[in-house]
Batch of 2 targets.
Target 1
Amino acid sequence: MAFKPPCVYILALSVGSLQAMVSGFTVVGRIEDSQASPVAGARVTLFAESLETFQEAWTGDEGNYRIAEMSAGIFRFGVAAPGYDYEEFELSIGPSDAIRDVSLQPESHPGRWAIVGSTLPDFLDATNIALLTPEGKVYYCHSTDDPVVFDPVTGESHFPPGSGTEQGCMNGTLLADGRLIMVGGQSPTNPGSFRNAIRWVKTYSFVDDTWQRLSDLVHPVGRWYPGLARLADGRLLAMGGGTRPNATRTATCELFDPVLQHWRYTGSMVNPCEFPPSALLHTGEVLATWSPPQLFDAVTETWRRTGAFNQPHRGWPDHSDHSLVVLADGRALAIGIRAPSSSGSGRTRGGRAGEAVMGEIYDPNQGTWDLTSNSGLVRLQPEVVQLPDGKILVAAGETQVSIPPVETLLGVVKWCDLYDPVLDAWRRVADMHQYREYHAVTLLVPDGRVLTTGGTRIKFQVGPSSADIEAYEPPYLFRGVRPEIVGISATDLARGDELSLEIFPETRITSIVLIGTPATTHWVDAGIPRRLVLPVTQSGRFVAATLPSDPNVLPLGFYMVFAMVDDIPSVAWIVKIVA
């Protein structure tokens, strides 16, 4: 069931045999920044291209490092430190010890976008869903009738069976047992009117390629564009949506029991809405932000208001302008803003007075929101993906202000940022190849890249112009030797279990990161939109961490497991958290 990346290194060499090969020479030096100040905690590596020889050292407070017992030869020498550009060059060792000082520059690598596949013969121009399967592949569809499964490792696609009856404008996710579930939507009759909402619920098994129709939603007039959030025990919360016969939004909600496989009504939201950005918080409540920000208590099954956005004028009841992710510290981050630069509360951080600000962060302990600093280009409905290193990719979207020389297509841009919530800082990175609006589906895959496709029919006036699948390679993929997980203690794990990994080459792991598998449509993620950072213990090439025992922190379902060396991730394995 778990995604298992291919082993690309020669593992027959034991640590002892490696140490026997290297002896004699020492490499020392100092790592400093562009102001000649020492860089502490920098990772210095000396290695052969094959990694049969690999050594590393870490700088101290004065920026000094020392690597001993190196054999004579020509090696690669790399220096990586968070916040700085990676440096790598060839270094000849012998016939005497070597001294090598390095000056690091502030990080500027933009990453890289590349075309890696296609969804042809289908163009994902509207009502699209993308989700990561338990095998590490990406399931794409614009309905339930013409799916495409793309393998990001091989770049190949295959076309599994459809459900037989088209189901557009739905929401979907993975159940804890690994099946895909599609909830609500509208039938194929006159889909542009949004007046034929349906109650259908279907599941698809990746094991035997079969569809099953489950009990319908209980709301008699259906739900198109319903919200969907996963509770800690694997139940699903369906929220709002449009109804037939006149597309009126509803505030009603339903709970799905995955054991009994049926729905029942639960408490209603504060306001009617569709596709509310939502996520389970570490407190056990579901935060939904459209609109107003409100909390669902899974015990009492009631909704209550929480703190309002600092920028409340976001266009409700129209489409949401933002996406929502849960950060490692339990706060929630909303990114995207509809308001033009002439509006806003004036409480800006990093922007001009009165300027709309791209992000707000919710503190569940206080029930309040705080503005982030600002991107160089404010926009609504961007593609938002949380990365293993904790940064947030904020790609494309629509700007309401013309800022030459930024090129737009009916306001939609290719502009991309990385946002660092720890430093509260934005950095522009490489542009997408295509203009993509909110119907694009964008998600993280186990090798650390971000895949996107669809959204090239711009405001239903231009296109669709492309069926390409683009992959973004974040800057962390250009930072030298990555750790590799070559063994794992188990892929079915319970809360509180110890997770053990075997790492190659033998490198110091700074943390293990779990990221919930995504299920994206429009600006919402009905997967597990959270990132967890686990402290580790290490003995040689074996690393261990204890999984959280709190079910609200670690909901049931599938997660990507990354071994991290500072901001450098391994390729992930996919594990399942079971009851």
Target 2
Amino acid sequence: MRALFEYDDVLNRPVEAFYFDTRRRPLPFENHYHYFIEVLYMVEGEIAVICNDVRYELKVGDMITMPPLARHSIYQLSEEDCRYAVIKFSADRIRLHGDYLPGISSLFQNPSLSKDLPIYFPEGTIRDFDLKEFTEKVIRELQERRYGYDSVLYAMLSEYLVVLLRYWHDSGYDEQMIPFDNTKEYSIHNIILYVGEHLSENINVSDLADMCHMSYSYFAKTFHKLYGQSCKEYIEFLRLAKAENLLLFTDYDLNYISEETGFSDCSHFIRIFKRKYEMTPKQFRKEYR
């Protein structure tokens, strides 16, 4: 069966979490794939998930974690209404500490290694970790977006991935076969990590293309195809997103914020900010803080 690609807006929404309810939108979801990890947790009813030609039937309390590029479809098993939590995130954004821990991105994006890993967890399979509480808290953090919510999200996602690694380790999976991800090599799929880590610096798109071993034109074309905007537009978006958090959650002055977010000077920062938000940074801070 032909699989359709699902575009993931990782730039604007690096983590997504919500409840899917058949009372609002009916199933099925036809065969598709995407670059992010997708976690489903059943709250009500029963569904069938077919992932890489393997069928899983989920009832209340069950969870499934579908790796990137896995072909999957979702069907309703009966006329009973269904409701399940959905969490989507990029493996490239998760960095686990510990020299012996595998690279999450390498593990999930290597089909020869991940195809035999258990991805379906019936209720009670994973001990000492409350799946229901985990999904509820992730969704709540994204909805409320309180101070430091992004750090809380990545901490919770890291913990969940470690829980999976422990389960696989305890089940006898040979973690020595899992590649380590200690390299600083970047691809078109994870170059956004470098951008995020060097926002305060002068980032040149040509240098990013060189890091991905691509020509400038091919890098620019591929980046736009994957992420729906140019690399330059993305860099500006990320700088404004960081500036927004600094305006809302700190008392730093505009000169410091413009420097910290990589704008050439304060006036440049104010001009770009006003163009997007239709108000100055000071007005934004006063209205939304």
